[in-house]
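Table S2 (continued). Query chain:
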Amino acid sequence: MRVAALSGGVGGAKLALGLSKLLPPADLTIVANVGDDFEHLGLYVAPDLDTLMYTLAGLSNPETGWGQAGESWNFLAALGELGGETWFRLGDRDLATHVERTRRLRSGETLSRATAALCAGLGVASRILPASDQKVRTLVQTAQGPLAFQHYFVRERCAPAVTGFVFEGAAAARPAPGVLAALSDPALGAVVICPSNPFISIDPILAVPGLAAALREAPAPVIAVSPIVGGDALKGPTAKMMRELGLPSSAAAVARHYGDLLDGFVLDTADAALAPEIEAAGLPVLATDTVMRTLEDRIALTRAVMALAERLR
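Corresponding output:
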């Protein structure tokens, strides 16, 4: 089965890894959020692209889900001694990724070409594409005013109350080469929206002109996996954001958020009681174990999602 997946960082990367273990590299394309990208210390940092790359390369830190395992922090310590900004943690090995990406971008390469080169260097065979080669930047609207995403997420630790989101540059952006082709491939078996934050990981992807329409017109079922389990997020501020936006913190609210983009929805067995509510709106639901603690969990969830896609085709 050929699959196109939309993903943010940590949560989405878990399912992306499961997909990569079951699908030949030529049959998997992962479209990554670039709304988190920013320039820091003169370097182009792409957190979700990096998390996906490190995860599929077997290099990710299993404790944090981001960054590399066995990381060292000499650069950051030296930077602090010089009075530099240390609020965004860049490990020594991670720093090499940002330096090389920045070098390639400044030499004229696009983000998608630089990403392909970095993936090749890390031994990642499945295709990871940025949603766009143009800048799309998430601004978090808060009660204290707008914040650049990383300032909200890392520097302020998601503390300010959220009132909305703006995706700067999205209207002028274009899908990166290969993205629309992956979503319209006649051999496509499924489009999977990974269990990433709908507002800050998936919506920035869908804000790129043409991508939401591509999902609606996709030749295969579009299936989303809920990032909410039992009314809370396993990691990250999804549930907090939903409450601050006046939404129920539930899998059903996630399904409503995606609306007519979806042909199927996967939620955790802990939320199985919500299935009739979602199905009443005409959306088929699968209740299964969605908490991915081990590689086996990731593969099992992948099998369940693929089985639902087969049923819906």
